[in-house]
Each structure stands twice: as structure tokens, then as C-alpha cells.
Amino acid sequence: MESARPTASIRFDFESFVMSHLISLLGATFAALALVVAPPAKADPLTSQELNAYLSTGKYDAGIKDFDRRHKADPSNPATAYALGALEFFGALANLQEDLRRYQFGAEIAKNAALLRPFTGDLTTSPHPNPETATYEKIRLMLTRFADGMERASKALSAVGETPVKLAVRVDRIAFDTNLDGTIDEAERLPTLLNAFDRQLKSNNIDLSEEVEIAFDNADAKWLESRAHTIMAFPNFFLAFDFETTFETTFQMFFGNEATEFGRALLAMVGSDREIQDLRAEIDAIVARKNEAMTPEQTRLLREKTRERDRIRFDGTLSPEDKTAMARAIDDEIAPLQAADRDRRALEAEENILKMRLSALDPANPATPSAPLIGNAIDALNLFHTINWRVVDRNRLERTRENILTAARLGQETWELAGRETDNDREWLPNLEQQSAVGNLTVTGDFISVWQTSLQNRIALMEGTVLSPHIRFPGGVNLKRFFEEAEQFDLISFAVGPGALPFVEKGEVLNAVPNLTFNRRRANQLDSETLLYALWFI
Asked: Please, what is the angle between helix 296-313 and helix 320-361, to 10°?
């Protein structure tokens, strides 16, 4: 059946591509933690008990082996295909989590970033029992393993089809054995792992610490298959390119200095005990001079006299002559205080420079808490600068386009199936007559309609029937040709024009204006409702 011509559009430049799929990665991880299937009402109760045992103990590999055997024995059974696909999804996420923990992903960042905990657990209190230093080759293998797991999940979920199936699960019991000790405690269950989203969830009376049961149906199977393809696009895109230079110069901000060439160069500059002691002594001397240059009492007096002078200047009851005379008298008092303050500020600037140097000499004990954050910010800036990657796996790049295209088509099918439902049974994706079992949320017909149109536009972009707008050209970029023909990807050059030029054509360019309305609606929905909308409409 020929696709309808898009009547509205979404913006599909590099920024929207990356940000939309980053949100989808985080969102799909949350949803995958909340999505696992239990046998339908007519199924063997023992099957339900076994499946929930896998979920509650985080033994996804065992669950995959079990349900793979059952699915092969009865390929026509949609329930076993559904269970296998969901467990493959979970298994891929569990393996990714273990790999990230093994390579100490975000160990420093995680101290202040609860959002990482659904991916890695709490690295600060529960490190991996056998940590390894990340390398470029290990990260490529990790991404390959993750992509292959999602591929198996999508294949199993595609076998569910439209044969009616409904599977229920207690999502509050889902667990990940984050510390790999073979047991599950409450810190490894879904409610604790998702405490980063505590404010968003509780604002809608969503309490995953209580019993939450969802009956997943055929529409939800399509949705999860779509999420698998959306997530798969990420590792496939990275694996299509040689990003070793980016890894060796910037990935120390993710995996620590030991992992990269530049990070190891920084470690080689660590000072001796004598150098560190001498520099600390120099800093202490400057601090002493700073404190002598201006005492706390002088600081207080300068602040008071400055406020007094300002009151005089704006006092409407005084004549200009009186204002001038009184202000001059105060200025005479302030002048030596201001000179002392200038000396203090100069010494403070010198102190901060030396502290940054000390942080480089002694990174294990940074002299200022902001030093690691400044280093990470510089690495992030350099990361964008180094994205000038050569294609090394054409199939992976083409597969990225197929992932995005398939995810959009499955997204359309998801809401078509959801729209035909007539029940209201513990829903994950509610139609206009239903409510979500999580937070009792609803959706509107207008919102679903605009979302369907945006999916159709995404399909048109990936098929090359419309062009992606670019700020430098009157025509647009044929993204289908980029994924099929690109030999190099230079992010900055692509964004400013020269890198995109080989794929620029004349033709129908996607109009970005209508998407502003949809993005505003979605942003308002996310602000006023809950993070669940990000999971449904990405």
C-alpha cells in the first residue's frame, strides 16, 4: 500500500536526530525495565511462575534460553514469542549494564548523576567485582553485543503478529543484579533504580514501590519492537564508523583516564609528592596573603559603605550639592577598602590558577571540586570537534537507516492497533477511551493524529521522497543517500554545509514550521504530565 503524502512535518536535522534518539534511549530503558510479559490467562500457571522468577531474580539469560526452547517448539504461539522478545530486550540491557559497569562508565559523574543509575546502578557504593580498563576494541565489542541483542529481540517480537494475546506482569518486582552477587536486594529493583525520576513520577501519583500490574497486548508488542529498532540505530551508527580518534582523545570523561591515550598522557603528568607539597605550600601562602589583604571586617565595611553611597545618590530629598559632598566623604572612606579588595581579588585569581594546576598534578585529590567538571566540559567540546569519522562498515550505516524507518512504521502500526482496542484493562498504551495503568494518564486524538503525521514524515525522509532542510541551502539533504553513500561523516562540516553538500538536491523540502506546534505540545505535555509521554511519543 502506497504511503500517504505527508501533510505536516517534523524537523529532521542532526540536532533533532541525536536528541530525539538520546531521549528515546533513556526512555526505552525505563520502559524496558517496566515492560515484561507474563502468560495470558489461559496459559499454564507454571509458565507465569517461571517467567516471574526470571524477572524477580534478574536471570535474563536463563529466561531467554527457556523461552527460546518453548518458542522453537511452538512458533505459532504468540505468548512465547512475546516473552522471548521481551526477555531478549531485557537481556540486551542487562548485558549493556554489566559492560558499562565493568568498564566503570561514568564512575566520577555518577557521584552526582542519579540519571545514570538505571544504566549502571550505584557505582560509588557498588563497583563491578572485576573491573576492566576500557579500550576502543572493547567498546566496539560492547556495542556489537548490544546491537545483536536488540536484533534478536526485534525478531522475536515480530513473530507476535496480530493474533490476540494479552500478558500481565507485576512491574514493581523487576530486578537487575547490578552488583553481580547472585542475589537481589531492594536497591536493585525497579523502584530504586528509577529513583532518578522520582519527582516526575510522583507528580502524577505514580508509585512503583506499590503493586503495579500491566496487561501488555499486541499494540504494546509493536511498540516494544519499535523501541528495539530505535535503540539499535545508536550502536549501528557508531559501528559504521572508525571513531577511534574520538575515543582516544575524549572518552576519558566516560571511562576514566586509564582508558584513552590522552587520559594516560594526563596521568603521566601527575606530580611527585614533593611537587604536590611545594605547590600546596605556595597556595597556602597566597591564601594567607589574601586574608591579610582584606579582613572579613573590611569586607563588611566596604559592603555597608557602598550601600550607603548608593542611598545618597538616589535620595530625592537631598540637593545635588549635598549629594556630591556626602558621596565624596564616603568615597574617601571607600578608596582604601577598594584598593584592598582589588589586591584580594588578584590574589584569589592567582590562587584559583594554582589550584587548577594542582588538580592536574594530583587528580585523585582535586584542589577544587569544579576541576573534574571543567575537564569533562572541555572533553565534551573536543568530542564534537573530533567527529570526522570514516565509514568502515557500510552495512551498519544502511542498517541505521532501516532501524529508523522500521521504528517509524511500527510506531504507526502501534497506535492503529491501540486505537482498535475496546477494553480498558491495565493499559500501557491507552487509546482515546482508555487510561494507562501507570498514573491513569490519557491521550487526545489530536495528539495521536499529529504524532502519526510526524511518523509519516520521518518515513518520507528515510525513503528520500522529501529532503531534510539545511540552513545553508535552498534545496535539502537527501538523508537516504547519506546513509547509503557517505564515506565520511564530519559533524561540524555537515552542520555548516560543506560536509552535507554531496547529498544536497533540489526537490520538496520538509517544512519545519508545523513541527514547532507538535514539539511545543509535546514539551507542554511532558512538563505538565509525566515522563511516560516521552516513552509513548518518541
From this structure: 140
In whole angstroms, what is the distance from residue 233 CA to residue 538 CA? 14
Nearest to 60 by CA among 31, 36, 94: 94
* 19/23 Cα distance (integer angstroms): 6
Handedness of CA 362, 363, 368, 374 (dihedral sign): positive
Instruction: Quote the DSSP letter at residue 182.
Output: S
pTM above 0.90, yes or no: no
Which of the four pLDDT bands, split at 50, 70 and 90, describes residue 178? confident
pLDDT given at position 194? 66
What mean pLDDT is predicted for residues 7-25?
Answer: 45
**Mean pLDDT for the chain overall:** 81
- The residues, ordered by sequence, that sit 6+ positions from 413 with a Cβ below 8 Å of its Cβ are 222
> How far is the C-alpha of 153 from the C-alpha of 355, rounded, in Å?
50
| pLDDT tens string 235-247 | 999 999 999 999 9
User: What's the whole-number mean pLDDT along residues 48-67?
Assistant: 85
Average pLDDT, integer, range 376-386: 89
pLDDT of 532 higher than 70: no
**Residue carrying the nine cell digits 570526522:** 388
Rounded mean pLDDT, 174-180: 81
Of 140-154, 357-371, 384-398, least confident by mean pLDDT is 357-371
Q: How far is CA 533 from CA 14, 452, 523, in A?
A: 23, 15, 9
Matching residue, cell 542487562: 94
Query: Per residue, what are the HEC states of 188-251?
Result: HEHHHHCHHHHHHHHCCCCCCCCCCEEEECHHHHHHHHHHHHHHHHHHHHHHCEECHHHHHHHC
CB atoms within 10 A of CB 435: 15
Collect all residues with Cβ–Cβ distance below 8 Å to 200 and sequence separation of at least 6: 530, 531
| Strand partners for 65 | none
Q: What radius of gyration, in Å, describes the C-alpha atoms of the chain?
A: 29
CA-CA distance, 437 to 424, in Å (whole number)? 9
For residue 152, count CB atoms less than 10 angstroms from its CB and return exposed for 0-12, middle for 13-18, buried for 19 or more: buried
**Burial environment of residue 280 by CB neighbours within 10 A (0 to 12, 13 to 18, 19 or more):** middle
Cα–Cα distance list, 417 to 85, 275, 300, 410, 421 (Å)? 19, 68, 69, 10, 7
